Amino acid sequence: MSSERVRAADAAATPGSAPQAAEAPDQQPAEATATAPASRRFRIPDAVFRFQSYVGLVIVFVAAIVLSPERGGETVFLRPENLANVVRAVSEIGIIAVGMTFVILIGGIDLSVGAILGLSAVGSAALLMRDDLPVAPTVGVVLCLGLVFGAVQGFTSARLRLQSFIVTLAGLQIARGLARIWSGGQAIPLAYGDEPNLAPPVFGLLNSRILGGTLPIPALIFVAVGATAIFVLRRTTFARHVYAIGGNERAARLSGVAVTRVKVTVFAISGFLAAMAGIIHAGQLNAGSPNDGSGYELDAIAAVVVGGTSLMGGVGKVGGTLAGALLLGILNNILALNNINANIQLLIKGVIIVAAAAVQTFRSGTE
User: Fold this and answer.
1) Residue 141 class from Cβ within 10 Å (0-12 exposed, 13-18 middle, 19+ buried)?
2) Is residue 33 part of a domain?
3) CB–CB of 128/199 below 8 Å?
4) DSSP result, 294-314
5) Which residues neighbour 340 within 8 Å (Cβ) at sequence distance 6 or greater?
6) Residues 82-96 pLDDT 10s
7) What pLDDT, in 10s, does the model give residues 123-140?
8) Residue 48 pLDDT class (50, 70, 90 cuts)
9) I need a surface site. Which of 77, 86, 306, 362 has the fewest CB within 10 A?
10) Number of domains making up the chain
11) Whole domain around residue 220: which residue ranges?
């Protein structure tokens, strides 16, 4: 009996013996048990943070259905014509917000996009009505104008090492001034026809709808712009350089990234898309005014922030921006359907923007 105890003690003391091997599994579950609750605790919040714009969009969409007034036993918000109006209203801000996403990803800001929209709307109306230019050359000239305006701002910011906030604030004033000079300080109405000093009727298609009058043409352009931007940010080397500059510009420069060229390109994209939105704006309102687009830069920034893009740069996706733009559009629509005071609407949107920024801060603090 004693000999058996001695052999058991020797076996237990021997490294790699069965009793010692059996001891390790007993310790492993104890460590896993200590860490498992923490991982489960943060798994759901992490998913919410990662897809905050989509979660917010779903919440606002459901809330809009619940809070929507009813007419004739039908939910007004869900009417096809109302949903089409939401997408149509969102299209201009959404297109600008896509360009703003690129700028914010490099850690910049573009305050001139609303003024570029106004300049482009005036330019479109003036070229069509006063200069009798056909639609294709008009669109080409206006788009090139926006692209060059944005590129100059990007070059100025990059070469002179100036904050983009200051450069684009000056650009806002310059674009507004040019729009007032070009238009004579007054709105230029668009009238369609085949006679001189009338816009070609084809330009009026920007205010039309397809698929039985339910899908606005601007919505198709918005979707096309969003899809193109998503592809660029997912599949191109240019996108990697954009994220690198936003994450650490100095490190990106030292690693061989052409920082100035990327910045110029990013601001050129922003100006190009703002000009595109200006053309659409003129087509939808049948006029171009130097005051068009006032405040649009703030709405575009709001869509980008709500979409989860960090204002510090380096983090964000275009898909989130599209969801953010739709979220704000649905919010505007449901508040208008319920006849909420315009000042209250501004307060509600402000709270949502602050909440989205707070979510980003909380997320970065937990990572």
Assistant:
1) middle
2) no
3) yes
4) TTHHHHHHHHHHHTT--TTSS
5) 348
6) 998 899 989 999 999
7) 999 999 999 999 999 999
8) low
9) 362
10) 1
11) 60-67+76-366
11, part of any domain = no
Asked, for residue 28, whether it belongs to a domain, the answer is no
pLDDT tens for each residue of 325-360 = 999 999 999 999 988 888 887 888 788 878 877 777
Q: How many angstroms separate the CA atoms of 138 and 145, rounded?
A: 11
- Dump the DSSP string for 192-227: B-SSTTSB-GGGGGGG-EETTTTEEHHHHHHHHHHH
Tell me the C-alpha distance between 99 and 309, whole Å.
13
Q: How many residues does the chain have?
A: 367
CA distance 252 to 257: 5
**% of the chain with per-residue pLDDT over 70:** 84
User: What's the CA gap between 15 and 264, in Å, rounded?
Assistant: 66
Rounded to whole angstroms, how far apart are CA atoms 352 and 349? 5
Note whether residue 137 is domain-resident: yes
What's the Cα-to-Cα distance from 4 to each of 11, 22, 89, 187, 357, rounded to whole Å?
A: 11, 20, 87, 105, 70
User: What is this structure's pTM?
Assistant: 0.84
Helices vs. strands in the chain: H and E counts, helices first? 14, 6
Axis-axis angle for helices 164-183, 113-129 (nearest 10): 20
Alpha-carbon gap, residue 115 to 191, rounded angstroms: 24
The helix/strand/coil state of 111 is: coil
Closest among 262, 271, 244, 305 to 168, alpha carbons compared: 271
Q: Tokens for 94, please give them.
A: 């959404």
Would the CA dihedral through 358, 103, 122, 327 be positive or negative? negative
